[in-house]
Amino acid sequence: MLISDEHPTLRTHDHPLICHKMGILRDVATPPPTFRRVLGEVAGLMTYEALRDLPTRPATVTTPITECETRELAAPVTIVPILRAGLGMTDGILRLVPEARVGHIGVQRDESTKRPVEYYEKLPRDIADGPVLVVDPMLATGGSATFAISDLKRRGCTQIRFLCLVAAPEGVKVVHEDHPDVVIHAAALDERLNEHAFIVPGLGDAGDRIFGTL
Ligand code: PRP
């Protein structure tokens, strides 16, 4: 994982498997079935590192031979995909953390104002008791991410991380300024936003590519 001086809360996941799979996702010729599968694989690989510091507590299990001291996750993890595109990452993460609960926040970017608009929310009542992993493939202006994180903080969440595939420097800056306590995990830090607030070079509209709504 890379840590940059310019973006102190950003962790860029440069594992060779992640880099290779990001090439497949960026390729305009990659069709939705492949895009969906690879997106889930990258999300899973990133989760392995992003949850490295999860708190654990001692536990005892009985092996076929005898009792054994082990460790288990200390608190329930909640994955919060930002709808719609965040859904594409959820299965890949659940494969690694099947015990996790899944809360949903529906935020859509108003393409005229570029501002986030909330349209749905369903979260576990005790979400604040454990770590929360907010997921969305794209961090563009940062509006959707910072909106969702603020919402979770109002509900008392204190252990929030954000996981995306492609981040624009502009979005990283916004999330860092609004939420300096939240670590941002990205597979790639791209160059910039264009005049339509799309990430360059990016991978296009992840939601449309996942769900075939191009
Ligand atoms: C995209 C993307 C993020 C958001 C990023 O979603 O999936 O949620 O835009 O942009 P921002 O950082 O400027 O807020 P979109 O609004 O296209 O909705 P969708 O997931 O339903 O496709």
Short summary:
This protein is about 30% helix and about 30% strand. It has one domain: Rossmann fold, CATH 3.40.50.
Indicate the topology.
Layout: E1 2-3, E2 10-12, H1 16-26, H2 32-50, E3 56-62, E4 67-73, E5 78-83, H3 87-96, E6 101-102, E7 104-109, E8 116-122, E9 132-135, E10 138-139, H4 143-154, E11 160-167, H5 169-178, E12 183-189, E13 192-193, E14 199-200, H6 206-211
Parallel strand pairs: 2-12, 5-6, 5-7, 5-9, 9-11, 10-11, 11-12
Antiparallel strand pairs: 1-2, 3-4, 7-8, 13-14
Helix pairs in contact: 1-2, 2-3, 4-5
The structure holds 1-O-pyrophosphono-5-O-phosphono-alpha-D-ribofuranose (PRP).
Which key features would you list for this structure?
214 residues, alpha/beta, Rossmann fold, binds 1-O-pyrophosphono-5-O-phosphono-alpha-D-ribofuranose
Structure explained in plain terms:
By secondary structure, the protein is an alpha/beta fold. It has one domain (2-211): Rossmann fold. Helices cover 32% and strands 30% of the residues. The strands form three sheets. Strands 1, 2, 5, 6, 7, 8, 9, 10, 11 and 12 form a ten-stranded mixed sheet that branches. A two-stranded antiparallel ribbon has the order 3-4. A two-stranded antiparallel sheet has the order 13-14. The chain is globular. The mean pLDDT is 96. It binds 1-O-pyrophosphono-5-O-phosphono-alpha-D-ribofuranose. 1-O-pyrophosphono-5-O-phosphono-alpha-D-ribofuranose binds next to β7, β10, α4 and α6. Residues 82, 84-85, 108-109, 116, 136-145, 171, 197, 205-207 line the site of 1-O-pyrophosphono-5-O-phosphono-alpha-D-ribofuranose (PRP).
